[in-house]
Design goal:
The protein is an all-alpha fold and 126 residues long. The protein has one domain. Helices cover 66% and strands 0% of the residues. The chain has 9 helices and no strands.
Length: 126
């Protein structure tokens, strides 16, 4: 009899861990993150994520800066340090599927130092 509640509790906890929903950042937090990316301030971006207990991979899809993803915004603003931090926080499969390399090359950002980091991360798989 005691085994059934323990099994049920284990299934609920495992389900909660495996099916983590995407967290949407509020507008003020997203604006702050965009400001930190534009300023190439990796430490402040890291701090705001830590303060709000957020994982970049969970909110990445919900944050855009001037209509661009965080990585593309970093490329546009020549924010190599922040861009590298962002790319390393994302799953390699997501980086590979993003199309950021093709976008950068077709929009005149082929010389961006961030492209090497994106290519390396995308080629590594996960």
């Amino acid at each position: 009899m005691k085994l059934l509640p323990a099994v049920f509790c284990g299934v609920v906890v495992a389900g909660a861990v495996l099916v983590s929903p995407v967290v949407h950042a509020d507008d003020q937090l997203a604006a702050s993150m965009c400001d930190y990316v534009k300023a190439d301030d990796k430490n402040r971006l890291r701090k705001v994520l830590s303060d709000y207990r957020l994982r970049l991979r969970n909110i990445y899809e919900g944050v855009t800066c001037s209509g661009d993803s965080l990585v593309r915004f970093a490329i546009k603003n020549n924010a190599a340090d922040v861009g590298e931090f962002i790319v390393k926080q994302l799953p390699a499969a997501q980086v590979a599927a993003s199309g950021d390399v093709a976008w950068a090359e077709s929009n005149g950002f082929a010389s961006s130092p961030l492209l090497a980091v994106i290519k390396e991360r995308a080629g590594g798989g996960e």
